[in-house]
Write a structure and sequence with these properties.
The complex is a heterodimer of chains A (about 325) and B (about 130).
Chain A: H1 3-8, H2 12-23, H3 27-36, E1 44-50, H4 56-69, E2 74-80, E3 89-91, E4 106-112, H5 124-133, E5 138-142, E6 159-164, H6 171-174, H7 179-182, E7 185-188, H8 196-208, E8 220-223, H9 232-249, H10 251-280, H11 285-294, H12 300-313
Parallel strand pairs in A: 1-5, 1-6, 2-4, 2-5, 6-7, 7-8
Chain B: E1 5-10, H1 18-29, E2 33-36, H2 43-53, E3 57-62, H3 67-80, E4 87-92, H4 96-104, E5 109-111, H5 117-127
Parallel strand pairs in B: 1-2, 1-3, 3-4, 4-5
Helix pairs in contact in B: 1-5, 2-3
Classes of the chains: A alpha/beta (about 325), B alpha/beta (about 130).
């Protein structure tokens, strides 16, 4: 039996092995993912992003417990940064999820970002597919502790939670562009500490500056204290309303189509580039051109035009 | 690119994880992906984590004296799950005679207090070919 068949048969070792192959860019992974494609499309992907230490892992753990009560099967992909200096990574998100380790209906995978920017890893999207085909109903993606412009997660998640906490900035922070434009639900976690009302006010005011046409989703602001387990059922309800909105409005179809387009175009670009670099360009030609650019004999813009022009005239 | 993945685990009733964190940090700085799961783990929890994370090495840290019970339990679980590609190493306060017994029983190596972390890195690199 190949890996894909074993995954469809419920073998979690095969799931783990295929994720590793994806992370390692093994050509075998593409073959297996092709087989899994027709079995995907059932999971709802929830992105969880926010600054380091705001409680993303704990929040996911508590949401997972709540969804397990509803009988949902859960996948969790937790991304932590890879060191740009050594290539190593310390993956510690699992510490907050201990209560779920032996539940066979939950699969947790920690992932190093391995050089990707934007808060997730290159292999995150394919890992979502593997967990989807494996039969998970809900898949959480925890981004690395995100900065203001880490918005890659918005391209993968169908519902995006932006987690913040009291005392993490004033109204000026709240009107900046980037991550705050992408959230479907804003979660003020650690809402048991002072400053919660102020944080709520800033976020509400920011949202009120945007006009949401009737029938469009207006992001909600929710308050939780993950470690005290308060506000979690309310948050699950809010997520559920967002899922229903996506379905009713037809926006889910548009989102899925856009995801498929981005993925397909990226693969086309990747394959075309690979083909040109490996099959068309003569050995050494690239290096020669780079030398010419360094010596200022040609500028990079004209050099690229020249190279591509030559390929298509042949 | 392939990377060595290591699970560093604290088994049982044992609350001291300074050593585990020092080792985890050293392995991280050696370019490995280190998964740390926190205190008070049962062998079953460690086993599940090792499976889902597809690790090459499980590093067990123990200072409570229960190593002659918990290390073999870990090995038994690996056998039950028919996993033969994960190496177990151990660290902590483990007397010499226990250490040799554990090694005879298949624990790859035991690293006691004062071990140079470079020694651990080299040991893992030499055993896990990636």
């Amino acid at each position: 039996m190949n890996l894909a068949e074993r995954i469809l048969n419920g073998d979690r070792k095969a799931v783990a092995t295929l994720i590793t192959l994806v992370e390692n860019d093994s050509p075998e992974s593409t073959k297996q993912l092709s087989i899994l494609h027709s079995h995907c499309g059932n999971a709802h992907v929830i992105g969880v992003t926010g600054a380091p230490g705001c409680g993303k892992s704990t929040l996911i753990s508590k949401l997972t417990a709540e969804y397990r009560k509803l009988g949902k099967r859960i996948g969790i992909i937790a991304i932590d940064p890879t060191s740009p200096f050594t290539g190593g990574a310390f993956l510690g998100d699992r510490i907050r999820m201990q209560e779920h380790f032996t539940d066979k209906n939950i699969f947790i995978r920690s992932m190093g970002s391995r050089g990707s920017l934007g808060g997730i890893a290159k292999s995150t999207a394919d890992t979502v597919k593997i967990l989807d085909a494996f039969g998970k109903d809900i898949i959480f993606i925890e981004t690395i502790g995100a900065g203001q412009a880490d918005v890659e997660i918005a391209k993968i998640a169908l519902t995006l939670l932006v987690v913040t906490m009291p005392g993490s900035g004033d109204d000026v922070q709240a009107i900046k562009a980037g991550i705050l434009e992408t959230g479907d639900i804003f979660v003020i976690n650690k809402a048991d500490i002072p400053g919660t009302e102020q944080a709520e006010l800033y976020l509400e005011q920011m949202l009120n500056l945007t006009s949401y046409p009737a029938g469009k989703w207006k992001p909600r602001v929710m308050k939780t204290s993950a470690s005290l387990n308060t506000g979690i059922t309310e948050l699950v309800d809010a997520i559920q309303s967002h899922i229903e909105y996506l379905k009713k409005s037809g926006e889910i179809g548009a989102k899925i189509k856009e995801k498929a387009r981005i993925e397909f175009m990226a693969l086309v670009k990747q394959n075309v580039t690979k083909y040109i670099l490996e099959q068309v360009i003569k050995k050494g030609e690239l290096e020669e051109t780079i030398e010419r650019i360094i010596k200022r004999q040609i500028d990079p813009y004209s050099a690229a035009d020249e190279l591509v022009g030559k390929i298509f005239s042949e | 690119m392939k990377k060595i993945r290591v699970l560093i685990a604290k088994l049982g009733l044992n609350g001291h994880d300074r050593g585990a964190k020092v080792v985890a940090r050293a392995l991280r700085d050696a370019g490995m992906e280190v998964i740390y799961t926190g205190l008070h783990q049962t062998p079953e929890q460690v086993m599940e984590t090792a499976i889902q994370e597809d690790v090459d090495v499980i590093g067990l840290s123990l200072l409570s004296g229960a190593h002659m019970t918990l290390f073999p339990m870990m090995q038994k679980l690996l056998k039950e799950h028919r996993i033969d590609n994960i190496m177990i190493i151990g660290g902590g306060i483990i007397p010499e005679e226990d250490s040799s017994k554990l090694k005879q029983a298949g624990i790859a190596e035991i690293f006691g207090p004062g071990t140079d972390t470079r020694e651990i890195v080299e040991f893992i690199r030499s055993k896990v070919k990636k």
